[in-house]
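ok new one. same drill as before - structure tokens go in, u give me an amino acid for every spot. 131 of them this time. try not to just spam alanines like last time pls lmao
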């Protein structure tokens, strides 16, 4: 089934309204899902180590704890090593985007600038009213 442009716009607007009005519920759902996935992975690792090394529950939990700490530590180290490159890339993109925005704003007529400000202020007041 193919959707036409009006149906796509309607679905997009409804999705944005749902996300903006229920962001706390969606965030809680996201974190809950991550927690369940983590617990499942930890349980599978417990069973795998218990089966491979024939250890008791307490020793398995200790091994799994240190394996997870090593994985988390390695991930944090990789992230730390990537941050300067990401920062420089983000800085360049941000400078370019600000420059393009200022050029576009300069090209607008006074009427268009007033229309943008009135739309922004109306939207902001609606947001404050609904919050």
């Amino acid at each position: 089934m193919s959707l036409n442009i009006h149906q796509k716009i309607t679905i997009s607007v409804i999705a944005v309204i749902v996300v903006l009005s229920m962001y706390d519920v969606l965030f809680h759902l996201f974190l809950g899902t991550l927690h369940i996935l983590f617990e499942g992975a930890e349980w599978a690792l417990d069973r795998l180590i218990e089966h491979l090394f024939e250890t008791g529950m307490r020793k398995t939990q200790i091994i799994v704890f240190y394996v997870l700490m090593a994985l988390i530590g390695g991930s944090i180290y990789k992230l730390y090593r990537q941050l300067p490159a990401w920062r420089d890339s983000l800085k360049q993109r941000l400078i370019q985007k600000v420059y393009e925005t200022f050029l576009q704003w300069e090209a607008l007529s006074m009427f268009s600038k007033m229309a943008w400000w009135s739309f922004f202020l109306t939207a902001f007041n609606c947001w404050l009213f609904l919050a």
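Residues 57-107 form the longest helix (51 residues). and btw The helical segments are 5-21, 23-53, 57-107, 110-130.
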